[in-house]
User: What shape does this take?
Amino acid sequence: MKFKEGENVHVIVGNELLSGWYNGKEFGTGNSLVKVSKDKIIATKDCFIAKEKEAELVVVPRFADDWISRRRQEGYNLIWSISYENNDMPDEMYEWLTSTADNQELFARAWLDGYEVEKEPLYYVKLPISKRNEATDELEVINMCLLLNIQSHETCISGNYRWVEKLKRTGWRSKLTEAQIKDMPEGGAYWQFAVPVEDLEGEDNE
Assistant: This one.
């Protein structure tokens, strides 16, 4: 087993399990050196050393990920980002934070230690738009993608499904959750045109 210098490890000395930091190899013997205190280093074989198990990352909803990304981009700290008096906080985020103290702790751990995003089904909203063909002077129907800005709540449409993903820092999204779609004005109508993202994978105009 390979270790990096400074990595947290456990070492067995006699019948005692100690925690420490990997400190490289001992010259001449090849034994591993483990620093178990400020003034004490133990030389031992690799077979007696085990890596300290890394803490699992917490899992947060996608709207919490959006909120954390937005607040960090705007330069806010944890305290201001979790404040209930923040008028910019989306209703969904506010309700989640205030529903239980566990969610407040979860948010703090996510902010400080990193996190994974809860996997939710994502959808494109494909709107059939009538457009006049200049060559034939006839109306034809083309599919356009509904885009949502999760910061300003603005919407627009585009013929390209993918380009907006490059602009995530500005808040625009083309891949939306069911809640994001239904929370928009006329969201119930838009939901009728929602198509699971995976159903459109591989299409040229995504």
